[in-house]
Structures are given as structure tokens and as C-alpha cells.
């Protein structure tokens, strides 16, 4: 027992009153050089869309860094990293995205592809986003990771994907959308259904 | 290659409700069935969004002053500190709240409880903690309301709280309840927290010192996020 921590409770059906931001899905401005679009649906155990969920993302910048004082490469600074520091445009990059789902269960994130997280062979990580999903019916958030289907070599070497049973890894891979460069598709299945197997969720 | 200390955050045991809580019927089709895969905390997990003042405007912390007139209901002050489990303050952290009005009705199209809406209350608020981790909201006490979980089911009065700490691992969304609520015993959401002592930590306490004479009742509620383990060392190029 960890002493004193406040327990989690569900967001309930009315999170739309307090949590969505107009700019939430836009980790960068959509006009930013190199912006990518991630879309998908949150689905329940009947294969039905979850229209009252919230998906949040957190990720590194294109050079693999975080604008955070606990990133050892940050020199202790906090705040927004600008892609200009990473060879991109000049718009702000927030690292964090938030999208409430629509009636069809869909969410949207517009961001920059994160870089490989540097480290030695054991610790280097393939480009990824950490995702939290909140919804009525979930008494605590669930956490998953999104990897990119066009980063196969990096994915094959990723230490976290390596801990996931091989048959379930596909649920963590966002598929490039044919004919739409820079677009990726990533459904989140809270349970298995005819729509597909349950997404891998992580205990952090 | 340099060696750098990465923080890591304690994994709470026996605090949060199990996702599989069948008494709460909405969990049946939504709570994952498979055990989660352990994720060692690496850079992505020990960093997180440090959202600042740009997310908060002047009236966001006073839910009674966001409309032309004051909302109906019992005016209250809710204040406290955001701490981690080692007792350290969490400064400059974004808190977002939402709640029902005094009649137990949410300003949301999906809420069909036949209780009146209040044109002077939208139920949303935001603030940042100060350098000592303190926060303060002025609002009205939310009403209890019925829901369809089971026959004659009612939610105890509560305010939803969303918190960003310093790291992805510290993210928390919870509900704050009021002392002595007679509806606790039949509420599967409140009771989804297995440890009775942990349940009590979701209940604010009435505080006469916070109460302002001739103005508003005061409640005190501290929120505790996951604390840090001792630093571990990880190699970074």
C-alpha cells in the first residue's frame, strides 16, 4: 500500500463540459512542415464506438527530446519546444494532445512524428506516443503506446515492443493510410470484439 | 555517452479502483479483459506536459462569475494543496474541474435528468497551483442526481477533478465528495475503491477557517499524486 495517494475515479459521461480544448488535437498547427495526422476510433467490447471518451497523447519532439526539466538533455529548462530547434518550422510544438471522441468514436491528433529516443542499445526506443484513454466505464485511465508502421526496423529493436507477446504487437502499430502521405490510422479496442483483438494496455 | 539520473514514480498498490468492477455496469463492455503489460518508466513516462498560465483565464477559478448573474445554490469555496506521496508540493500544475449544478443537472445534452438547468452556471473551472501547490475554487455545491446503474441509483454530490503533475505517470482524474453524504453506501463508483481508508481520501472536509463570514462555506481537500522513488541511473547518448 502506497500511503496517501488520492484514488482515481471515472470521468463519467459529461467530461465534455470540462476537458476538451479547441486546440486540443493540434500538438502543432496543421500547417506546420512535416505535420502528420493520426485518426482512429475507440471501440468497446461489442465493437461499438465509444462516443464519450478522451484520448490524450504525450511524445518527444522530432529530435527525440522532451521540453521538460527531467529530460537529462534539457539542462533543466521547462516549457514548449519549438520545432525550429529541431530543423522544422517556427510554430510551437506542445508535445501533448487531447481529443474527445465524436459520435462515431473517432479522435484526431495532428502532430510531428517523434524521433527515436536516444540511448544505448538496450534503451533506444522507436518513435512512439504514450496515449491515455479516459471514458465513462473506465474507473482509471488506460495507457497504451502508438508506434508507426513505417518504422519497422526501429520497431523491431524497441525494448518495450519486445516485452509484448508477438501476437499482440500489431495492436500498437499505427498503419500509414494508403494514398494519404503523413496520415496514420490507429483504433483503440478496449476489449476484443468482431472489430479485432483487445489493444495492449500498459501498467505504468 | 553520459549517465543521467531519471526519476521514477512509485506504483500505487491497492489505491485505484480495479477496472473490472461489475457493480458499475458501464465497465462491462469497456474495461479491458486482459492483464496490462508492465511498462518500465522511461523518458516518455517520467516527463509530461507542463501546461502553464496560457490555459487559464481570470474568471476560470470562480464558477459563480462566468455569467451575467450568479448561479443558484449554496456558494462554496474549495481549496487545498496538490502534493506527491512524499509530501512535496506540486507547483504550477493545471487543475480542471466540472460538476452538476445545484439541482443535480449537468449543462450537457446527454443529461436528461428532469431537473432545471441554470443559465448562470456551466459547471467548468480551471486553475494553476501556486508555488506551494495550493489551489482555490469558488463554486456552488453540486446536487445529487439519479442514474440508471441499478434501481433507484443516485450519485453522491461530487466535483470532477483533473490533474497534471510533473510527469505522464502522475496524471490523475478523480472525483471529490462531500462529508457525510447519505448516498455513499449505494454508490458503486465511490465504493469501487477497495480500501476504505483510500475512499475517505476522496472526501473533502468542512473548514470554518476557510469559510467566509456572510459569504460562502469553506471546504478543504488535498490531492496526493504518485511520489518519486529514489533516482535510478540510465545511460543516454
Pick out its properties.
heterodimer; A: 204 residues; mainly beta; Protocatechuate 3,4-Dioxygenase, subunit A; nine-stranded mixed sheet; 1 helix; 10 strands; B: 237 residues; four-stranded antiparallel sheet; 4% helix; globular; disordered C terminus
The stretches of 5 or more residues of chain B where confidence is low (pLDDT under 50) are 233-237
H and E string of chain B: EEHEEEEEEEEHEEEE
Strand fraction of chain B equals 25-35%
Ranges of chain A where pLDDT stays below 50 over 5 or more residues in a row are: 81-90
The total beta strand count of chain A reads 10
Oligomerization state: heterodimer
The radius of gyration computed from the alpha-carbon positions of chain B, rounded to a whole number of angstroms, is 19 Å
Computed structural class of chain B:
mainly beta
* Classification by helices and strands of chain A: mainly beta
What does this structure look like?
The complex is a heterodimer of chains A (204) and B (237). With 204 residues, chain A is an all-beta fold. In chain A, 2% of the residues lie in helices and 26% in strands. Chain A has a domain at 35-60 and 95-189: Sandwich (Protocatechuate 3,4-Dioxygenase, subunit A). Chain A has one helix and ten strands. In chain A, strands 1, 2, 3, 4, 5, 6, 7, 8 and 9 form a nine-stranded mixed beta sheet that branches. Chain A starts with 34 loop residues before the first strand and ends with a strand. With 237 residues, chain B is mainly β. Chain B is built from two helices and 14 strands. In chain B, a hairpin with a 5-residue loop joins β7 (145-147) and β8. Chain B starts with a strand and ends with a strand. Classes of the chains: A mainly beta (204), B mainly beta (237). Chains A and B meet through β2, β5, β6 and β10 of A and β1, β2, α1, β4 and β10 of B.
Amino acid at each position: 500500500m502506497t500511503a496517501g495517494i488520492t484514488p482515481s475515479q471515472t470521468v463519467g459521461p459529461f467530461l465534455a463540459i470540462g476537458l476538451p480544448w479547441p486546440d486540443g488535437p493540434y500538438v502543432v498547427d496543421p500547417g506546420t512542415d512535416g505535420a502528420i495526422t493520426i485518426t482512429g476510433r475507440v471501440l468497446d467490447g461489442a465493437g461499438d464506438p465509444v462516443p464519450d471518451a478522451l484520448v490524450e497523447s504525450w511524445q518527444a519532439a522530432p529530435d527525440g527530446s522532451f521540453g521538460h526539466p527531467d529530460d537529462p538533455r534539457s539542462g533543466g529548462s521547462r516549457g514548449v519546444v519549438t520545432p525550429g530547434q529541431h530543423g522544422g518550422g517556427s510554430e510551437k510544438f506542445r508535445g501533448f494532445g487531447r481529443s474527445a471522441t465524436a459520435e462515431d468514436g473517432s479522435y484526431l491528433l495532428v502532430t510531428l512524428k517523434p524521433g527515436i529516443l536516444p540511448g544505448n542499445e538496450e534503451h533506444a526506443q522507436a518513435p512512439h506516443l504514450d496515449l491515455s484513454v479516459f471514458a465513462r466505464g473506465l474507473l482509471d485511465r488506460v495507457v497504451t503506446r502508438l508506434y508507426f508502421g513505417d518504422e519497422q526496423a526501429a520497431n523491431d529493436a524497441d525494448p518495450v515492443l519486445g516485452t509484448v507477446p508477438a501476437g499482440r504487437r500489431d495492436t500498437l502499430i499505427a498503419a500509414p493510410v494508403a494514398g494519404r502521405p503523413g496520415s496514420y490510422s490507429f483504433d483503440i479496442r478496449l476489449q476484443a470484439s468482431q472489430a479485432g483483438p483487445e489493444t495492449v494496455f500498459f501498467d505504468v | 555517452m553520459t549517465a543521467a539520473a531519471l526519476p521514477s514514480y512509485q506504483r500505487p498498490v491497492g489505491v485505484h479502483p480495479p477496472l473490472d468492477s461489475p457493480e458499475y455496469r458501464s465497465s462491462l463492455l469497456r474495461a479491458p479483459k486482459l492483464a496490462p503489460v508492465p511498462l518500465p518508466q522511461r523518458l516518455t513516462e517520467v516527463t509530461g506536459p507542463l501546461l502553464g498560465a496560457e490555459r487559464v483565464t481570470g474568471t476560470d477559478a470562480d464558477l459563480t462569475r462566468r455569467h451575467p448573474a450568479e448561479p443558484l445554490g449554496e456558494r462554496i469555496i474549495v481549496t487545498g494543496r496538490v502534493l506527491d506521496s512524499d509530501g512535496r508540493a506540486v507547483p504550477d500544475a493545471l487543475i480542471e474541474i466540472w460538476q452538476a449544478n445545484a439541482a443535480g443537472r449537468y449543462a450537457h445534452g446527454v443529461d436528461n435528468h428532469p431537473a432545471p438547468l441554470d443559465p448562470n452556471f456551466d459547471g467548468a473551472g480551471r486553475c494553476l497551483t501556486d508555488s506551494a501547490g495550493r489551489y482555490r475554487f469558488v463554486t456552488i455545491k453540486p446536487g445529487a442526481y439519479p442514474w440508471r446503474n441499478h434501481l433507484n441509483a443516485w450519485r453522491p454530490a461530487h466535483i470532477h477533478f483533473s490533474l497534471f503533475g510533473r510527469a505522464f505517470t502522475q496524471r490523475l482524474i478523480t472525483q471529490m465528495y462531500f462529508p457525510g453524504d447519505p448516498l455513499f453506501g449505494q454508490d458503486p463508483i465511490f465504493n469501487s475503491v477497495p480500501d476504505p481508508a483510500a475512499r475517505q481520501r476522496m472526501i473533502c472536509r468542512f473548514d470554518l477557517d476557510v469559510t467566509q463570514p456572510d459569504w460562502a462555506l469553506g471546504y478543504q481537500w488535498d490531492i496526493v499524486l504518485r511520489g518519486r522513488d529514489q533516482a535510478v541511473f540510465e545511460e543516454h547518448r
